[in-house]
Design a protein that fits this description.
This protein is an alpha/beta fold. It has helices spanning 2-29, 176-183; strands at residues 58-60, 70-78, 88-94, 119-123, 129-135, 148-155, 159-168, 191-192, 195-196, 202-205, 208-209. Strands 1, 2, 5, 9, 10 and 11 form a 6-stranded mixed β-sheet that branches. A 5-stranded mixed β-sheet has the order 4-3-6-7-8. The structure holds fe (ii) ion (FE2).
Length: 224
């Protein structure tokens, strides 16, 4: 009998704890997400999947032991008045050195699964600056599509959207037409000029202009 009472009490306590935990998960799930603008936007939901609670202005995309040529991506994010924009989240993901988005089994069934493991977020500092350390991606296998780094913006509490991917000016697969289009892309130019620093690390600069050429962006009166 004592055992039965113990089981009942234990079950009640456990149930209460589970409910509490369930509520907190629900609360986390129901946190308001920044609305997606600039539709259609494939992969815009994925930017929230695995999003860490705390972010810094610097992050690694590829781990240090990832095969490939090391690369640093950095830049400044500017608001529509041309001022540096702090507290803006920049999300980036790209292929590995053989052009594959290496899948993370833990992400199976999520929208982010297709983005692969080489993904990360940063949050701009007071000067609007951000930096990713990673490797230089390759074109898709058996493809003539230029290598690229996908990028998305989350303006905290405001909106989220993709911007033009980083493309490399020295990429033989990049056409003149594509280069021209990239210069006037979403979020400013996605065309970068890669240069190796004294340590042999590729260095690219991708400044970002919030909302530029993004249809439906709050404040873009004449678009979308
Ligand atoms: Fe891609």
């Amino acid at each position: 009998m004592k055992l039965l009472i113990f089981i009942i009490i234990y079950a009640l306590v456990f149930e209460t704890a589970s409910t509490g935990l369930g509520q907190s998960v629900d609360e986390a799930e129901s946190r308001p997400r920044e609305p997606i603008v600039g539709l259609p936007c494939e992969g815009c939901v994925a930017v929230f999947e695995g999003l860490p609670d705390t972010l810094s202005p610097n992050a690694r995309i590829a781990p240090e032991d990832e095969p490939g040529e090391p690369m640093r991506i950095e830049g400044t994010v500017y608001d529509q008045e041309g001022n540096p924009a702090p507290v803006v989240i920049v999300y980036a993901y790209h292929t590995d050195a053989i052009g594959i988005y290496p899948r993370d089994p833990a992400m199976r069934g999520t929208a982010a699964y297709r983005h692969g493991k080489l993904r990360a977020w940063v949050k701009t500092n007071e000067q609007g600056h951000y930096r990713f350390n990673t490797i230089r991606p390759s074109s898709y296998p058996n493809s003539t599509m230029a290598a690229h780094v996908h990028m998305h913006i989350i303006e905290v509490g405001r909106c989220t959207y993709y911007i033009d991917s980083i493309h490399f000016k020295d990429d033989p697969y990049l056409s003149k037409k594509e280069k021209k289009e990239l210069l006037e892309g979403r979020g400013g130019s996605g065309l970068v000029i890669p240069e190796k620093d004294e340590n042999g690390i590729w260095q690219v600069n991708r400044d970002i202009h919030l909302g530029e050429n993004v249809p439906g962006y709050p404040g873009n009166q004449d678009e979308g």
